[in-house]
Amino acid sequence: MAITIYGIKNCDTMKKARGWLEEHGVAYEFHDYKASGIDRAHLEAWIDEAGLDTVLNRAGTTFRKLPDADRENLTREKAIALMIDQPSMIKRPVLETKGKLLIGFKPEAYADMFER
């Protein structure tokens, strides 16, 4: 089963998620979207499945530091362009497996996914 976890290497939440996977013997590939970027197709698929408000991290420092003009009247297209340009605005981690998507880290959600 192919498992990919997307995020930023030094993020505390990413460290917790990756630690959980390793402690439970779940093999995965890590995609650091700050180092390697992220493509439009992934963002569109994630937004289609989970919604823009789940994918875009409005509470993060990167988003809050944007000029008002960039934060206001935020359309799907504008948000995708911002996330491609500054992937730190994507909530993390994003985990893809079994044709499913998990955004954010909650140990119980990971347990439901992998311990059945």
Tell me what you see in this structure:
Helices cover 46% and strands 14% of the residues. It has 116 residues and is of the alpha+beta class. It has a 4-stranded mixed β-sheet, with helices on one face. The radius of gyration is 14 Å and the shape is elongated.
* Unreliably modeled segments: none
Structural class: alpha+beta
- What is the residue-averaged pLDDT? 93
CATH architecture type: 3-Layer(aba) Sandwich
CATH homologous superfamily, by name?
Glutaredoxin
CATH topology: Glutaredoxin
Strand content: 5-15%
Q: In whole angstroms, how far apart are the ends?
A: 14 Å
Order of neighbouring strands in the sheet with most strands: 2-1-3-4
The major pleated sheet works out as: 4 strands, mixed
Computed Rg: 14 Å
CATH class category: Alpha Beta
Total DSSP helices: 7
For the secondary structure, the number of strands is 4
- Helical residue percent band: 40-55%
Shape field: elongated
Count structural domains: 1
Could you state the order of secondary-structure elements as H and E? EHEHHHHHEEH
